[in-house]
Design a protein that fits this description.
By secondary structure, the chain is mainly α. 49% of the residues lie in helices and 8% in strands. It has a three-stranded parallel sheet. Strand 1, helix 1 and strand 2 form a beta-alpha-beta unit.
């Protein structure tokens, strides 16, 4: 499937978790991936063996714009890391690891069975912190609903 016209800005979480699942390539169908340097540094600290070269659509942003004062206050309140702040500064809507896995099935990159297995594998194969009951709700909805 050809790359969509969507430009994505990533924080470290999806890079780390998709790499832990061995599925970093699920990000290759975005038109462009913008990754702040602070995000890449954080991802590589956690996953030194990660090979970001599999993502030919990735561009490293050396100097993202500063956060506006209201977002800076929220970032402080939620103790966001430098990479999360840099991704927010780019001003795009955000989606996490689970949203990217669901999207991969909608886009035909993985089957529904494979998508469900990736979701179920998250607690055992990744460092993603998610409550087991919340993940169970997501899996149950994904099993019974048509993903569109």
């Amino acid at each position: 499937m050809a790359a969509t016209e969507i430009v994505a800005v990533l924080d470290a979480g999806p890079l780390i978790h998709l790499d832990e699942l061995g599925r970093l390539g699920l990000l290759s169908d975005f038109k462009q991936l913008l990754v702040p340097q602070a995000v890449m540094d954080e991802a590589l600290r956690h996953r030194p063996g990660m090979n970001p070269d599999v993502l030919s659509n990735m561009e490293i942003i050396s100097h993202p714009p500063p956060l506006p004062a209201d977002l800076l206050k929220l970032a402080d309140e939620f103790a966001l890391h430098a990479g999360e702040r840099a991704a927010l500064a780019a001003g795009f809507q955000t989606h996490g690891t689970i949203g990217l896995i669901l999207r991969s099935q909608r886009r035909g990159r993985v089957s529904k069975t494979e998508m469900l297995q990736l979701l179920r594998d998250l607690p055992a194969r990744t460092t993603l912190h998610i409550h087991k009951d919340f993940l169970a709700v997501i899996v149950a909805r994904a099993e019974t609903e048509a993903i569109s």
